[in-house]
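To the team - magnesium ion complex, inputs and output below.
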Amino acid sequence: MSIATSPRPIVDHEPDPDVATLSLEEGATTFADLGVSPDLLAVLAKRGFTQPFPIQTLTIPDALAGRDVSGKAQTGSGKTLAFGLPLIERTKTAKPRRPHAIVLVPTRELANQVAEELTPYAAARGLWLCAIYGGASMFRQVQALRQGVDIVIATPGRLNDLLERGEMSVSAVKNVVLDEADQMADMGFLPQVERILGQIEGETQTLLFSATLDGAIRTLVQRYQKDPVRHEVASTQATVDTLEQRFIGVTSDSKVEIASRICSAAKRVIVFVRTTHGADRLAEQLGRTGLRAAAIHGRLSQSKRERTLADFSRGSVPVLVATNVAARGLHVDGIDVVIHYDPPEDHKVYLHRSGRTARAGESGMVVTLVLPIEERDVTGIERAAGIDVGIVSMAADDTRLLDLASWDPPRGLPEVASYSRGRASAAPARNGGGGGRPRRGGYSGGGSSRGGYSRR
Ligand code: ADP
Ligand code: MG
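Output:
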């Protein structure tokens, strides 16, 4: 298999002297070596988890020792157990409506997934956990809290609602986890998060997990972690090495059909689009090509989202058309292809979306469809992500679409300067074929219209 990504880890901050990194080769430890107790080891063994993943090896000992750990690793690297095992080890039985631990997550899907993943371990300890999020019956959540929940896994908005109604108190909380903290920041949840954290009385342990630890996250760490230690797994080591990546040049006329052909050859595929409306429309268009496709986005009801996800997990709907937010943090096994139907906003989004496949060391194919007008932005994203896979233009009947792994894409990105010149001469030919849209607006002044890449 070809390794599509340069070995250089993506570092989006100055390296701190106390940051530990680890490569996958050093994985000879066991969960027992990390200090996990026999009852939880039994659950791990039953699930077939014999070797801790790198982020788990790095963070579990410090988290068990009660330190305030921040962990940075890409999606699919095993962060849930990295915080979940120590959390369950350290959580005690709580009084009704006064949980001992809270895990804050950005989306309701993630709340459910974290709860599901941790339930067997909690059950082994006789601990109760509960997922609490908006868009679902508050009554049932209140009932559960009254019966006594030891670990609450919640989205910040609904948790604040419950706190305001006096249905729950965080005064007895001793353990806090902020999962996907960067996504909570991106979604504007930090004020909500801080409102919750501000109501906790007494000493707490705060674990924070995120794909990035810069910007707003750094401030959170400084404000809420008293005994901080930071660990990170360089993202390319964690998952991107197992990705195969293709960048396919398309036209607006051929794009749906090309996506359809790629989907038809995949077992389970997520197609990313930019907008809610775009998700609905593309699911319908793919449906018309004979595929079973469904959209998932933030405007669907909770029950609809859950049904769609269940259909997708079961395989009865093999094509999921998703917006970024709807798919964030989701874990569905066996996604073999991710399609960036609309190019990602930046390289971080590219990595987050792409991390839906090649999870837990499996391999996966990531395809970005690129309109002529998007070439420059996509090249910028590749450069920022340390990827050097060239864009290959294809027509909808190109047989290479049906077996993307069977051919190797060209390596090397165009130089920015000569690239601009090349595009200038290529543009009229493409325009001659159709639309006649102005193409050069985004290239003028030497910066892309989004401007996010040249700045670095
Ligand atoms: P992240 O939160 O970093 O995106 P997850 O915690 O969802 O990643 O883990 C990704 C997948 O890997 C899940 O299916 C999880 O059950 C599995 N997994 C986690 N740790 C291990 C392990 N040590 N061995 C095997 N599979 C694991
Ligand atoms: Mg996670």
